[in-house]
Task: structure prediction
Amino acid sequence: MYVTFSRLCAALLLLNLSILLPGCATNPVTGKKQIAFISEESEIQMGQEYDPQVVAEFGIYEDPQLQSFLTEKGNAMAAISERPNLPWTFRLVDSEVVNAFAVPGGFVYFTRGIMAHFNNEAQFAGVLGHEIGHVTARHTVAQQSKQQLAQIGLIGGMILSPELASQGQSLMQGMQLLFLKFGRDAESQSDELGVKYSTAIGYDAQEMAGFFSTLDRLSGGSENRAPTFLSTHPDPLNREVRVAELAQQFQAADNRGSYEVDREGYLRRIDGILYGEDPKNGYVEKGGFYHPDLRFYFTIPRNWKLINSPTMVQMVAPDEKAIMQMRLAPGSDLRAAAQEFIQQNKVQVSQTSDQSINGLPATTIVGQINQQNQQGQRSSLGTIASFISYGGNIYMLAGLSMASDFRRYAGEMESSIRSFAELRDQSKLNRKPERIKIMTTNRAKTLQQALLDAGIPQDRLEEFAVLNGMELNDQLPAGYLYKAMSGGTR
Result:
């Protein structure tokens, strides 16, 4: 997967196990028998349940023409796959992260971030085929069946520590960013299927191989744009070699003669696509989180990772042993919102305060949550939560850690909470988004000179070289298209 995103896989553990009936099924791709707890009907049902959660998590990126392109190519590829009758759905989602992922039942998602990093249609088609391959080969289903069989729950890296997540599940709904980690065999199979499907509809899969070098370079790139799948996938450069070999094999068997790349057509399709964070949805700058539309800001604890989504802002400590969350609380009464939080999470309150925060009415509670897991093991979590009235909304800022660690994090959590304030700085309020601008060279020059001529700052030249899939000293002929930037203030 490029990533098969599975924060949503937590929901699998909550499904009625009656639909996970053990048995054997024939894998649509290999034709071999495999243990399958999940029928195709249930697989489709899971996808239909996950889809609105994905949309809520990321939001839809509104670009009808690019969405139509994704759907057209996805349907063409699905039609020649081993599972053409699935209710295939392809969505363009609003995230700057370089990512593509799939959930069971034929739901495939591409972020605007990965669309911005492709440099031709053939690269896009290879990755699209890879994600379709995860669905056709039932990798997500097979992995989930193994987990149910072994009763070991989810596999893969959690941003949150497994112990903390299992104990604080009721408080941290929406904060469990899980990534289902497929084995190398599954990844290799999906790479092969990506080559197979893209070749079958006429694209040059050699370009898919070339995209892996972009992924490798991105691993050292900007924090906001580093692809999340690099922590859970085989070395991109190793895959580049194998995919190139596979492309030769499939093209030799297909014997089409020529295959489509379409660099210029693709670049013109993404001209104007949003690049990086969308300021109106909030952005990070110099240790603070700013939200121009809602006109607030707060500081981020030092070295904590921030994850921004349409429904909440989440922050995770460097050692993953503490988390914070900011979201809207229901209602308009501070005390009622705090009380609902207390009751819902069974908080044993040790302190309560109605002290305002930067002139804004607020209620703050400190307490402990005692929980028992399915094995009967008990644990305690420490929490601090403030409910702040501002702009007609109630904002909840809550921190959580194991009770034994709470003192260590309480100061950072409280400091972040108490920094919440009205945003008045016009330079922050008027931040414009950056967009990809497709430029044409007026004469032969290096990529570096072309980028400088287009106004790209010196400290971002390498970033834009990666974005273009080239090196700064590459020579561009006159009339050559390349990616630059419009908007933004950095």
In short: The chain has 15 helices and 21 strands.
